[in-house]
Amino acid sequence: SSFKPALLSNGVRTMVPPHVISGTRIVVATEDGSYVERAKD
Question: What's the CA gap between 30 and 14, in Å, rounded?
């Protein structure tokens, strides 16, 4: 799948899947800042 760039609220840039829209809370890996999943809240 192709990922797209995203800017997180804390200023960190990462790559997320196309289904993630602006305002979605996500989980990122602390080791490298990569996308893990959508937050479950």
Answer: 12
Are the C-beta atoms of 27 and 9 separated by less than 8 Å?
no
Contacts with 33 (C-beta within 8 Å, 6 or more apart), sequence order: 12, 14
Q: Name the pLDDT band for 24 (thresholds 50, 70, 90).
A: very high
**Structural tokens at position 27:** 């989980």
- Residue linked to tokens 């760039």: 5
pLDDT higher than threshold 90 for residue 41: no
- 5 Cβ partners below 8 Å, 6+ apart? 13, 14, 15, 16
